[in-house]
Amino acid sequence: MEAALLSHSLLPTKPSHKETHMAYTITSDRLDVSKSLGEKLSDKELLELGVNIDALVEAGHLSPDALPTPAPANNEGEVNG
Description:
The protein is an alpha+beta fold. The chain contains three helices and three strands; from the N terminus they run αββααβ.
């Protein structure tokens, strides 16, 4: 029974619409995917290929792109100047 609970907890979950997805740039010509050096892949594409993203980043085949930073909120009534 414990094994069943453990394996169930390791199953991937569907991302919610609020989650942000990572993008990765291919930094190696030795990566055997449908894209070339310098092109981008999403985490979804990589997971569909069944690759270990962390291992590819650590080995220098992929480089994670920076997540966009949200623009600062503008408070009403604030005086700029």
